[in-house]
Amino acid sequence: MLVLLVIVGLVAAAVVGAYWTFGASMRGELNALEAAAEPPTPIMVTEQMLASLPEPAQRYLRAAGVVGTTIPRLVRLTQTGRIRSGAEAGWMNFEAEETYSTNPPAFLWSAYFPTARTPFVLGRDVYADGRGGILMKMMALLPVADEHGGELRAAGLMRYLNEMSWFPAALLGDNVEIIARDAQSFTVRLTDRGLVAEAIVSVDDAGQMTNFRAQRFNTATRSMQVWETPITDYADYSGYRLPRSGSAVWRSPQGDLTYIELDVTSVRYED
Questions:
Q1: What domains does the chain contain, in order, with CATH numbers?
Q2: I want to staple 54 with a disulfide (CB 3.0 to 4.6 A). Which of 180, 188, 206, 207 is the partner?
Q3: Between β-strands 257-270 and 176-182, what pairing exists: parallel, antiparallel or unpaired?
Q4: In this structure, how many other beta carbons lie within 10 angstroms of the beta carbon of residue 258?
């Protein structure tokens, strides 16, 4: 019995230490992101700045409420949702916190499965300094996913471009190009450290984004696939009209896979 208690105690200590180490690593990455974030050019967004853009882009930015605002330095949001690794896999609930820098582009996504109070699995997705990576560990100890490298750099920048929908004034930054396409969509191109992410943004008559479509690297198939993030609901956050609920879908001839569904519970901006 004594030996068993010792073993249990050692395992518990290892798990606690692993949680502390994982959390300390994420705090270090967050501190580095915040320290590197520089104030963007403090230009107030005006109607004149929108006038040269394609009409769907003008409609989208007006509906989002960017006129009369400036680009924030940092953006922080919280999410709840569920995620799965494949069509036959079960869904896992999660809670997440995410911080973005707008100058330079960077994000850190910290996820807890199923919740922050009972984090059976800890997850981290990051794009910073032109590098990307995904890390998930069961009990903060056993790797479930550990991806990094060239493909993750491009995938990370594409995710960042997609999630600029929660700080849309940044689409008017010097590193973004908006290109005319048709009456219900426009092309957006983001450049960072030699990387380029390009996508098609679909917009309804009211100016709300309905979908985001691009080619993105899928770590599961180790290939480029069509990636879409349809929006299902909108809400008001800090004076902006922004996506509240949506999903992410891999499109393929073999069948589409919706692998994440989420709700944004808060958005906060810092200069």
A1: 2-270 (2.50.20.10)
A2: 180
A3: unpaired
A4: 13
Burial class of residue 233 (count of CB atoms within 10 Å of its CB; 0-12, 13-18, 19+) = exposed
Sign of CA dihedral 171, 172, 174, 178: positive
Which residue pairs from 63-68 have beta carbons closer than 8 angstroms and sit at least 24 positions apart in sequence?
63/206, 63/207, 63/208, 63/241, 64/168, 64/207, 64/240, 64/241, 64/242, 65/239, 65/240, 65/241, 66/168, 66/169, 66/172, 66/240, 68/44
Torsion on CA atoms 62, 66, 69, 73, rounded to nearest 10: -170
Provide the β-strand partners of residue 3.
none
More confident residue, 47 or 24: 47
Three-state DSSP class for residue 179: strand
Q: List pLDDT tens digits, range 147-164.
A: 877 889 999 999 999 999
Confidence at residue 4, expressed as pLDDT on a 0 to 100 scale: 45
Averaged pLDDT for residues 60-74 = 97
Report how far residue 206's alpha carbon sits from residue 195's, in angstroms, rounded to the nearest whole number.
32
- List pLDDT tens digits, range 122-143: 899 999 999 999 988 887 767 7
Residue 209's closest CA among 226, 234, 176, 173?
Answer: 234
Tokens 């690794």 locate to: 85
pLDDT bucket at 15, cuts 50 / 70 / 90 = low
Query: Nearest CA to 144 among 117, 170, 121, 175?
Result: 121
CA pair distance 72, 204, nearest whole angstrom? 26
124 and 136 Cβ atoms separated by less than 8 Å: yes
Q: Which amino acid is at 223?
A: S
The b/e string for 200-215 (b: 16+ C-beta within 10 A; e otherwise) is bbbbeeebbbbbbbbe
Distance between CA atoms of residues 109 and 95, nearest Å: 10
